[in-house]
Design brief:
Chain lengths: ~130, ~525
């Protein structure tokens, strides 16, 4: 699953994530992070048999966890299937089909919105 | 050998054999050009790309009392109306006059909305004459109540076009789309083997009067486009860069929104996606062999758009098969490539045109005059006012600082020399950072002593051989007031500041009596 972790200022100096990885059987990937002494947030992808337990652990430790319910969508009316977005996507969530249709993959998307901004016809929307 | 009249008779009889340029590549490969020339009558091509040099003549009809429009705005986008009384030309790249909308809604969007049948607000003004007394009007127009809406595009369908990368360390926004830093992606535009002028590379069939598919309607080639260039380098018989262009015309009232779209390249401007398809009559085996060109055979140069000069450095040569595969190799690194033009739409256009001909709804024309195939070579525009380079500016003696300098010493040095910026360098005069008088004030406020604790390490720089106009744009873009000048060995040579540039402009204006 993907989730935003929100760190309060007092949480910033604690090694919660280290403990999480040490103590639970899970894989953990940081997709985006913006943390400074005043707190911040981190977008993570967390998988594995103990992922649920791990989430409970960090919530107990005081980190706010909000699972991402993001929808990345292309508007078929607006999209002209040019493909300008494809090489901009940092996680290869946009691909070109055999019939040259441009496809966006909700699962892979990390919501950076580079495609949304760069689309010549404003055909891609990311809603969180 | 066939004639266009013979092909048209076959179209009429329902016997014409029409294939797309993509299919023709395979046919010639298998059967050879001689047999293909006997079997095939017409090859259809297609492209659907951003073509900035596009626009439309609109005739609004006369009001009562009449007006001789000198300015006209369509949904807030200015159309040129220095044409009699009620004619205007709306250009695709004209931005909205409302600065909050700007390039997000431009002439191209007006054209799309008209073709889509939407109502468009028309605001016009004039100076009033005895025969045209009205001086202002505000009303609505749409495609049905305009007398004429004629798309006339001065430069479309570039024969080939260089792909773009960006070697700088920041993202740039260009007419080739968003280019990621450090050559993070490659953007290309041509439809390659499907593109009209790559299938008739010496203009043996296309000319003034060639009937074509234009944005879903019948249109015409009305001649060479602007910047038509025949004096170009070729490989495998086709140009490796820009080269030939077309001027196209079509009736917007007949056009289909599926094949024309207003768009905006972020931080660059609005542009029109134009769908064009040209039928190539297969008159002989030479023409047949030319239409067999494949993506693999068409060379495309990759240029560095990080260099804002007319002649951009060529980084590498590739071809459209590689570009379309999703990545190309530059200096041993795989870099993702993606098109700006829609290959899907280009194929649809070639198929649609094929269908029109198959059904006997579209006949070929004999051009009145073929496109110029030699001696056409557009020149550059030289600016009378000489471009001034950074190293030609008279700058103050170089004052520098070291990272371990004491803040108080640095402050003293700034005051004594009356400067606001100091480059921080190592013992070899190489740049480490920059410090401004604001940084010094900040250090004093926070009780810091060492220069290295307050200096800015990520520095925007100017190169000695860059034009001052480019530096002015950089200062504006980064909202800074000056930057160090660096030579090619990365040594600091001086500082250039907004003040230096404004002084230069004042001096220049005085000389020219502005």
């Amino acid at each position: 699953m993907k989730a935003w972790l929100k760190f309060s200022p007092k949480m910033v100096n604690q090694a919660v994530i280290t403990d999480l990885i040490k103590n639970f059987d899970l894989s953990f990937n940081i997709l985006r992070a913006d943390i400074n002494p005043k707190g911040g947030k981190m977008l993570i992808e967390i998988n594995g048999s103990e992922a649920e337990k791990g989430i409970t652990y960090i919530e107990k430790a005081g980190i706010e966890v909000s699972p991402v319910k993001r929808v990345v969508k292309k508007d078929k009316e607006l999209c002209i299937d040019c493909g300008a977005c494809v090489s901009l996507c940092p996680v290869k969530a946009i691909s070109v089909d055999e019939d040259w249709t441009v496809d966006v993959d909700d699962e892979e998307c990390i919501g950076c919105k580079l495609c949304t901004y760069s689309c010549p016809t404003k055909a891609i929307k990311v809603v969180e | 050998m066939k004639t266009i009249e013979e092909i048209n008779q076959r179209i009429k009889d329902g016997d014409a054999v029409v294939v797309t340029a993509a299919e023709m590549t395979q046919i010639v490969k298998e059967d050879g050009a001689d047999k293909a020339a006997e079997d095939i009558d017409v090859v259809t091509t297609g492209t659907f790309g951003a073509m900035c040099s596009s626009g439309a003549f609109l005739n609004f009809g006369h009001t009562d009392p009449p007006i001789k429009m000198t300015r006209s705005y369509l949904n807030g986008v200015e159309a040129y109306s220095g044409l009699a009384a009620v004619d205007s030309y709306i250009g695709a790249t004209q931005p909205s006059k409302n600065p909050e909308i700007g390039i997000d809604y431009g002439g191209a969007h007006v054209i799309e909305d008209l073709i889509n049948g939407r109502d468009i607000e028309l605001v016009a003004s004039s100076y009033g004459t005895d025969c045209y007394p009205l001086t202002d009007l505000r009303t609505h127009v749409n495609i049905d109540n305009l007398n004429e809406a004629i798309m006339v595009n001065p430069r479309n369908c570039y024969q080939n076009y260089a792909a773009a990368v960006n070697s700088t360390d920041e993202t740039i926004y260009t007419y080739m789309g968003t280019l990621l830093p450090n050559m993070g992606n490659v953007s290309f535009s041509s439809a390659g083997g499907l593109s009209p002028l790559l299938n008739d590379p010496y203009f043996q069939t296309i000319g003034m009067g060639t009937k074509i598919f234009l944005c879903g309607a019948e249109g015409y080639v009305i001649g060479e486009g602007t910047q038509h260039n025949t004096e170009v380098q070729r490989k495998n018989g086709v140009p490796v860069n820009g080269a030939g262009t077309l001027m196209l015309k079509g009736d917007m009232k007949q056009m289909d929104h599926e094949f024309v779209r207003g768009a905006t390249m972020p931080q660059y401007g609005s542009t029109l996606y134009v769908g064009a398809g040209i039928p190539i009559p297969i008159l002989n085996s030479d023409i047949a062999s030319k239409t067999a060109i494949s993506d693999e055979d068409i060379v495309c140069q990759v240029m560095d758009y990080g260099v804002p000069k007319r002649n951009k450095p060529i980084i590498v040569e590739t071809n459209y098969k590689e570009l379309r595969s999703g990545s190309i190799e530059i200096n041993g690194v795989e870099i993702e490539s993606s098109p700006l033009s829609s290959y899907k739409k280009a194929l649809e256009i070639a198929e649609e045109l094929k269908l029109w001909i198959d059904r006997g709804n579209f006949f070929l024309t004999n051009p009145v005059k073929l496109l110029t195939s030699q001696g056409s070579n557009p020149g550059p525009l030289e600016i009378r006012r000489q471009t001034i380079l950074v190293n030609e500016i008279k700058s103050k003696a170089l004052i520098i600082a070291s990272p371990n300098d004491d803040i108080r010493d640095v402050a003293k040095r700034m005051v004594q020399n009356n400067v606001n910026h100091l480059p921080v360098v190592d013992t070899d005069q190489k740049l480490l950072g920059i410090v401004t008088s604001w940084d010094i004030a900040n250090a004093v406020a926070k009780g810091k002593n060492m220069l290295k604790d307050v200096m800015t390490k990520k520095v925007v720089i100017a190169r000695e051989d860059e034009p001052v106009d480019v530096i002015a744009r950089r200062i504006d873009k980064h909202e800074i007031s000056g930057m160090p000048i660096i030579d090619k060995n990365n040594h600091v040579m001086g500082m250039i500041t907004a003040e230096d540039i404004s002084r230069l402009m004042c001096a220049r204006n005085r000389e020219e009596g502005v």
